[in-house]
Amino acid sequence: AIYFNDPFRAYAYIASMPFFVALYQAFKVLGYAGQNKVVSPVAVKALRTIKYCAISLIGFVAVGEIFIMLSNSDDRAGGVFMGILLTFGSSVMATAAAMFERILQNAVDIKSENDLTV
Questions:
Q1: pTM of model > 0.85
Q2: How far apart are CA 66 and CA 80, in angstroms?
Q3: What is the pLDDT of residue 7?
């Protein structure tokens, strides 16, 4: 019942889901690295999921910033700064995941091409 008295709190819990999904996928990628299966389509799919989660987190933060700006508060600076930090971190994560995804996809393509020629 306490979550529905403050809709921003419920929104924050919903918006945190992409973060935890990306964290789970990152642990899966690390598990693939431990099993020496980094160059595989499942690792590429996990990186793609991390990229999409980071992009959706940027969207959730942007809507949260609008929520903060439209509220009737005297101290918005802290919330806005935290939103800027989260957006910057998410954009760095999305860029890194996209870069690693592209590199691993090229490696998977080369590996499958080499498996066919041998």
A1: yes
A2: 9
A3: 79
By the 8 A CB rule, do 70 and 13 touch? no
Residue type, 11: Y
Where residue 118 falls among pLDDT bands split at 50, 70, 90?
low
Please check whether residue 18 is in contact with residue 61, taking contact to mean a CB–CB distance below 8 angstroms: no
Cα gap 93→22, rounded to integer Å: 10
> Residue 6: how many CB atoms within 10 A of its CB?
10
Side chain identity, residue 15: A
Distance CA(104)–CA(66), nearest Å, equals 37
What is the C-alpha to C-alpha distance for residues 90 and 96, in angstroms, rounded to an integer? 10
Other CB atoms within 10 A of residue 94 CB:
20
Under the banding of pLDDT at 50, 70 and 90, the label for residue 110 is very high
One-letter amino acid at 112 equals S
Q: How confident is the model at residue 1 (pLDDT cuts 50, 70, 90)?
A: low
